[in-house]
Amino acid sequence: MGNLHGLHRSHHAGSNFPGQEFPAPAPPSSFSPSGPNMTVEPYCHVDSSLRSLAGKAEGFGSAAVGGLNGPVCRVTSLADDGPGSLREACRRPEPLWIVFDVSGTINLLSFVSISSHKTVDGRGQRVKITGKGLRLKQCENVIICNLEFEGGVGPDADAIQIKPKSKNIWIDRCSLKNYYDGLIDITRESTDITVSRCHFMNHNKTVLIGADPSHVTDRCIRVTIHHCFFDGTRQRHPRVRFAKIHLYNNYTRHWSIYAVGAGVESQIYSQCNIYEAGEKKTVFKYIIEKAGDKEKPEAGFIRSEGDLFLNGAKSCLSHDGERHVFSPNQHYSEWTVEPPTEKLKNYMKHSTGWRNLPLPPDNIPSTA
């Protein structure tokens, strides 16, 4: 990645609360693109050293430090299991910063369960996960960075499945496509999660947040999705129940059903995203459902601030419920955002997903 200087737009607690007027997004005071196709790069210094990634997520996943306090663990085998495998490293109970000494495809016969306090860091190699995916179950403090996911098989095959009661998760710079079920599922009280700079393609049910209207305890879910490229995926960018979702500076194009789905009680704050329609024009879809502890069915709530709608994209917004949508500055004070422009669109097309990055240096001894 280039050394870009991103615009950090600060918000202060006490302003822009639900029920108050929201100002139009302020234009950037300055930014320094490193080339004609690049503008803002969030957390642009995270590749300076191995562990500088820890704690640098923006949004709800900002507390994720992964395996910061553990040794480096090296994956030396592309086997599904056994010594030197990814599965063997992920099941260890202690904090680990997991890196790869090999490139290639890991064909999983079952989900790899990641225990707490792990970083799975694909920088320095090109590693593709196929067959099944990664499962984050009742864990905390996990970072997944710079991996490819392609070709998941079986009715339960998600690329990354986060459930139940997992928290402080950051998924960054991954390429995901063509799994049987979902690409990322966040359900069953899993919360404080950021998904950033990922490239989603060739898929139907892309991102699910909240699996069922009977799961009323999912009201705790909070997710930030930013600087992601939804590239011709059919729907669910994301599809939400109950949760609070902040979407900003994402580029979603050529969906074939809808772009963003707001199910029961969801609160979606869509800020400075680019929605470029193909044949289907509906951006925001309100999905009416009945919460398990309520009598009256209802859809979710959406607020759109500074979004760009291209090629006939129709927001289909219902402005009646905007006052019910949370404001991100109630939860974090600063995030990297800029107005949606052609430069931002080009940046998203060329700078998301798996990148050919060197593994940064680390001065802490490693373990096999």
Automatic annotation (TrEMBL):
SUPFAM superfamilies on file: Pectin lyase-like
Pathway note: Glycan metabolism; pectin degradation; 2-dehydro-3-deoxy-D-gluconate from pectin: step 2/5
Catalytic activity: Eliminative cleavage of (1->4)-alpha-D-galacturonan to give oligosaccharides with 4-deoxy-alpha-D-galact-4-enuronosyl groups at their non-reducing ends
Basic residues bias: start-end ranges: 1-12
Residue ranges annotated for the Pectate lyase domain, each copy included: 83-281
Keywords noted in UniProt: Calcium, Lyase, Metal-binding, Signal
Methyltransferase in keyword set: no
Note on cofactor: Binds 1 Ca(2+) ion. Required for its activity.
GO molecular function, one term: metal ion binding
Protein's UniProt keywords contain NAD: no
Documented EC number(s): 4.2.2.2
Biological processes, Gene Ontology terms: pectin catabolic process
Region (Disordered): 1-36
SMART domains recorded: Amb_all (SM00656)
Stated family: Belongs to the polysaccharide lyase 1 family.
PANTHER family for the chain: PECTATE LYASE, PECTATE LYASE 18-RELATED
Protein name, as recorded: Pectate lyase
Organism, scientific name: Arabis alpina (Alpine rock-cress)
